[in-house]
Every structure is written in structure tokens, then in C-alpha cells.
User: Fold Alpha-hydroxy-acid oxidizing protein from Nocardioides agariphilus.
Amino acid sequence: MSSPLDREPDARGVLPPDIHDYVATGAGDEETVAANRDAWGRWWLRPRVLTGVSDVDLTTTMLGTTVSSPVLVAPTGYQRQVHREGEVGTARAAAEAGALFVLSTRASCRLDDVAAVAGPWWLQVYVLRDRGITEEVVRRSVAAGARALVLTGDTPVVSTRSRRSSFDPAHAATMARDLTDVRDDSAYEQAPDVTYADIGWLREVSGGLPVVVKGVLRADDARACVAAGAAAVWVSNHGGRQLDGVVPTAVALPEVADAVGSDAEVFVDGGVRHGRDVVRALALGARGVGLGRAVLWALAADGSAGVADLLAAYEANLTETMQLVGARSPSGVTRDLVTWR
Ligand SMILES: Cc1cc2nc3c(=O)[nH]c(=O)nc-3n(C[C@H](O)[C@H](O)[C@H](O)COP(=O)(O)O)c2cc1C
Assistant:
């Protein structure tokens, strides 16, 4: 078996090659895919000694919801393509772990089936060309228990992948289709005209749920999102799947965290592969740290049980890393614990 924190070798053994490649690939020459992973390693850890770490507690809050760990499940679409349990399996594992689960607009399971097993969960929103469909997905998600909306801002159009897989996701995302009777495929495409004003629109449609903007990589954008009503920003480059050559998230994170200060919460994802990357992210100002491909590999390898094992492995690895850096809680992981090489 592969490392409990990275089940990619196991997943490769069971997935059809086109599905494996669909998950693994990035945009362009995949410069950012590689840089995301490398950049965490550019932050050296500076541990404290003799701090007494027998009682590490990973519990934290995300927009007012108590969760067991700063590690959360980032939104990824089409999960039934990697395992028949799909989003239901992932949501169940996150619920059992007490971790936050973010459900993609491009989910492949039925909304009610996911909500029935989920613990705390947020809905990731792609504004679709037919805004009526988007409104329906948001309203139904609010009714089903979503506690926040994650507006993905880095995907006004879907970028061309370099090693394009032959998998065509167009009809694999059944959640939204299940909620409406619109049959025109173009209605489900990304709307390229999304602006800051849509933060307020989503708050309105959802009856006031907090809005998180995902895909923020700059201080000025972060401040503009907060000024437009966002409760949080999520530093992300879509795992290197959108614009290639963009700044790795471990580089963008401190700029964004400093820009919003205590006005908003900050989340991050991209290339996180160990508990020590989570500690680096917390030190640089993140409240929550998302796993994208890692969850899909675990789901592919072993279904819901695989995702549960992954989250448990992260909990153990993060606890040990916190002990070794001398921090007892996520709020004790401060900026002085890292330095740039
Ligand atoms: C197969 C796949 C599907 C994804 N689907 C979505 C999506 O539907 N919505 C979204 O906001 N991000 C999506 N993402 C991006 C993830 O939320 C996350 O930003 C990224 O995977 C983090 O990088 P990592 O895979 O290195 O952890 C997807 C990523 C992958 C790999």
C-alpha cells in the first residue's frame, strides 16, 4: 500500500487511465501543479522547544462551525467517476471525522442523498450561464443544510488541460440536472460574467449565508472581496488546473492573510501533502486547509473507508507535527514558526 497520506499509487492501480489523468492533470505545462507542492517545502519550520505538548487539540471553527481539524475536504466534481460511492461516500467519511466537507456544483450524486449523511458542509458555487439553475441549486442546498457558499472565482471559463484526458465531464455532473428540468447543455456551462456584485446576489438568494470567495491570490482582490461582503477568502489556484504559471498558494497565502487581517477568515488549498504543509499553512494565516486530489485518490482506492482513513492519517500526522513544532492548538501555530529558505 502507498502512504496513508497519498493513495495515488493505489488509485492509479484501480482507475481507468482517462479518469486517473482527468484528476491528476493541470493546465498548460503544469508549471503550477509542480510549484504548488514545491512551495510549501520552501517554508522551513522553526519549532519551539519545551512548550509541553501532551494535550494537542486540533479543534477549530470555520465561519462559526466547530470542526475537529483545520483539514477540510475541498470541492471536487464528478466523484462517482472515481468510485461508485461518490460524494455520498466522501461526505459520510468527513462527517464521521468531524471535518468540513465542501460539495461541488459539479457533484455526481443527488443533493438529498449527500445531505442525508453529511456533517457540517458548504456548497461550492459555479455561477452557471442559466442563473435560474444556480439559484435553484443554492436554495435547495440551503434547505438541505449548507452552512456557507463557496463562490469559485478562478473559473470564468474552463481552461485547456495539457495532457487532456479523453474523459468528458459534460454529462457526469448530475446534481444540478437532477434539481431542474432544463435539458439544454449550454445552460450548465460556466458564466463568464461573474463579478464582485455576485457576492451580494448569493447572500440574497441564500437568505444571508456567508460567502467565501475561492481562487483569490492577491491582496487587492482579497480586500475587494471582503468590501463586497465576503466572509472569507480561499487562496487557491484550482490545483494548477486553471491558469498555468500562476503563483503557488504557499507564496500567495501570507499576502492575502495580511491584507484581510481579522476582517475575514482565510482558507487555502493546493499541493498539500503532509501534516507539516498544514502547519505551514496555519502559520501563514490560514484557518482551514483543503485537500483536493488526495481525497479523490483515497476515495478511488477504498471508497468512503479510504477517505475516513485519509482524514485519520492527517489527524495523526498533524498532531505529531504540532507536538514537534511546539504548538498545542491551531491558534498556537503562529507566523514565527516558519521562515522562507
Ligand atoms: C478532479 C478535480 C475536480 C475539481 N473540481 C472542482 C470544482 O468542481 N469546484 C472547485 O471550486 N474546485 C474544483 N477543483 C479544485 C479543488 O477544489 C482544489 O482547489 C484543488 O484540487 C487543490 O489542489 P490539490 O488537488 O493539489 O489538493 C477540482 C480539482 C480536481 C483535481
Remarks:
- The CA atoms of residues 47 and 325 lie 4 Å apart.
- The pocket of flavin mononucleotide is lined by residues 23, 36, 74-77, 104, 106, 124, 152, 214, 236, 238-239, 241, 269-272, 291-294, 296 (CB under 6 Å).
- The mean pLDDT is 96.
